[in-house]
Amino acid sequence: MPGFFERLKSGMSRTRGEIGDRIRSLVSGRQWSDSLYDELEEILYEADLGASAVEEILRRLKQSVRENRPERADDVMQLLRGIMVSMLSAHEDPWALPQERPAVWILVGVNGTGKTTTAGKLAQHMKQRGHRVILGAADTFRAAAAEQLLVWGERAGVEVVHQGQGADPAAVAFDTIRAARARDLDLAVVDTAGRLHNKGHLMQELAKISRVVGRECPGAPHRVWLVLDATTGQNGLEQARVFLEAVSVTGIILTKLDGTAKGGVAFAIHQALGLPIGFVGVGESLQDLMVFDANQYARAILGMDAD
Fold first, then answer.
1. Residue-by-residue DSSP string for 179-203
2. Model confidence at 38: pLDDT above 90
3. Among 188, 190, 189, 186, which Cα is nearest to 130's?
4. Cα(184)–Cα(60) distance, rounded to whole angstroms?
5. Domain contains 289
6. Which of 53, 87, 121 is the last residue of a domain?
7. What is the pTM of this model?
8. Which residue has the higher pLDDT, 142 or 15?
9. What is the DSSP string of 218-287?
10. Which of 39, 148, 184, 201 pairs with 86 at a CA distance of 20 to 30 A?
11. What are the DSSP calls for 140-155, one per residue?
12. Cis-peptide into 221, omega within 30 deg
């Protein structure tokens, strides 16, 4: 089975073509000039890095070029890699659990981001790491959400707490925590709804889930993961802010990086939201949900080899 970097690099081939290959072609045999920086700026914008990140990268690159005078394209790529890595912060060991049990993770995000699938993958990963896990299907708006989570639960051998469509999501979350405590489990992963056509109701619903979980398990939720779809680019940022208003998000999970040429959106997300990225998804299989590594991510989009 391919290693972490190989899967990441393969999954991000479209982004690599838009960023790494174009930049390498641009700087090969060219003298540094305003026009070259203008072309580089265009490439970075088109890859959806966002205005703030693009300006910062160019500012630092100009300074590094003056100080280091790179002569080869590989030298330029190394300078860019270092700048990019320094601008991204990852979640400190996103797999780690607090001492108190059960730990509670809540997943929030717009429907269609891969949130329910991610909840199942997280539960299966954690079980493989030796933890006892339970899933809560608190997205009671979509009947398919509970069914999908039940499939993941059966696949992983993990119990799924669920009720009928239209049930109170907070009640499902409550039952999930109660079951986790009664069974002396390590982790409860709660999936939630993400419909935005009724923003006020959604915010109240998520806030209620958070309150109920906190009352039943002091200190919970220990992590609130905001799941974002990389294919939506910066359009997803405004949606993300809705969830930040409702709950205290602790980290980002960026999915579907394999489906976009604009995988540079990780920079825009981090700059705009100020939240660490915990995991990235580059495919449908369990192994394609990976811990975010800023260095490997930068190497993958720039088309560089692994360390």
1. HHHHTT-SEEEEEE----TTHHHHH
2. yes
3. 186
4. 51
5. no
6. 87
7. 0.90
8. 142
9. TT--SEEEEEEEGGGTTHHHHHHHHHHHHS---EEEEE-GGG-S-TTHHHHHHHHH---EEEEE-SSSGG
10. 39
11. -S-HHHHHHHHHHHHH
12. yes
Tokens read off for 120? 């199942």
Side-by-side strand order, sheet with 223-229: 159-161, 133-138, 187-192, 103-108, 223-229, 251-255, 277-281, 289-291
Domain boundary among the residues 201, 231, 249 is at: 249
135 backbone dihedrals φ, ψ, rounded to 5°: -110, 145
Q: What are phi and psi of 195, to 5 degrees?
A: -70, 140
Rounded mean pLDDT of 82-106? 89
CA distances from 162 to 186, 225, 252 (A): 19, 20, 25
What is the pLDDT of the chain when averaged over all its residues? 88
Does residue 87 contact residue 270 with C-beta atoms inside 8 Å?
Answer: yes
- 261 in a structural domain: no
What integer pLDDT is reported at residue 1 of this predicted model? 41
Backbone dihedral region for residue 274 (phi beyond 0: left; psi -120 to 50: alpha; all else: beta): left
